[in-house]
Amino acid sequence: MIPARFDYEVAGSVDEAIELLGREDAKLIAGGHSLLPLMKLRLARPALLVDIGRLEDLSYVRDAGEALAVGALTRHHDLATDPLVQEHCPLLSRAASLIGDPQVRHRGTIGGSLAHGDPASDLPTVLVALDAEITARGPEGERTFAAADFFRSLFETALGPQDVVTEIRLPKLGTWKGWSYLKFNRRAQDWATVGVAAVVRRENGTIEDAAVALTNMGSTPLRARGVEQALVGASADSAATAAEHAADDTSPPSDTNASADFRRHLARVLTRRALEEALAR
Which of 90, 95, 271, 279 could pair with 181 as two cysteines, CB 3.0-4.6 Å apart? Predict the structure, then answer.
């Protein structure tokens, strides 16, 4: 299908992008893999596209002490292959490698994925599991959000109409040696029917701490608090028992890919497998 008529501007800086977003019904575009499909279906009809895809100063991965600083325009492929990400946050590297197909990974950006706010997206779930921070700049300056507070509802985030995501900070896994990201989808390039991000920390055979987050089990990425509580203080063979709580307090959708009940079943199965993989590292 063909999008509705729109104007197009290339922003030379974040400040220029913020100014252009002040025009009526303006939207940001970088890689375009979130917005353009909606425009082709005419589910989105922006009057102006503000292209920030050429802002090279927003594409980077840097060591920031106890965290990794990731520019909002860093491509999925770069997250999957960057040595710093592979060393200090392999969970993010793995999730990025599973997104779409090579064409999508070479064009899509982490900032675009976050700003789109799709609950079926992989990277928001990883950020929620890791308690990452998301920084955005707008007309009133810079703001930083905890990932858990950034995603508000279906395709709704904490961003204002003129805000631009600039950076993401992820804690290094350090002693969290166990990690996994698993998802089920009908075809390799499809959105996740259900996904699970898990990180665990063990000492002397006992699970000291755990974080588990779910993809596409509600209108936003969700922490599986029941699973986490069941794991803390338990032995490494408790994955199956803890995973039974994966669907607690969730509200998965029913659509052409799966019913809500099937998603609940998938959440329990994938959580068990993700925990087993994390605990085996």
Answer: 95
